[in-house]
Amino acid sequence: MNKFIGQTVKEIKKTDSEILFICESGDRFIMYHSQDCCEWVSIDDISGDLNDLIGSPILKFEERTSGEPQEGQEVDKYLTFTWTFYTIATVKGYVDIRWYGESNGYYSESVDFEEVKQDRKWYEQQCELLK
Fold first, then answer.
1. Is the pLDDT assigned to residue 43 strictly greater than 90?
2. What are the residues facing 23 on neighbouring strands?
């Protein structure tokens, strides 16, 4: 998301399935997955210190996905899976956030990164961090 690049994050709130970035400008951005029936998506790992993203402008925001198994990962032939990787960087350092999603193949395993719009109640209903 181009609008996130250049923002200075002042606070980060995190659960196992959501990360909320609150910026000095007042803008808020959320990384989440809107859970549905037969799929599971959550944060698998964070490499680096989220505090390195606070207080300096965001210089890099990159998303990558993979459907390839990680080393040592057992694959269930009845499920599909997606790894989603985010790299976010400031001059203080960078963070890699790895999400893992699996489903029966019919439902989405994607991660969303969106600006939180003040006039949309949907976010408050879907996202624990905004309640």
1. yes
2. 9
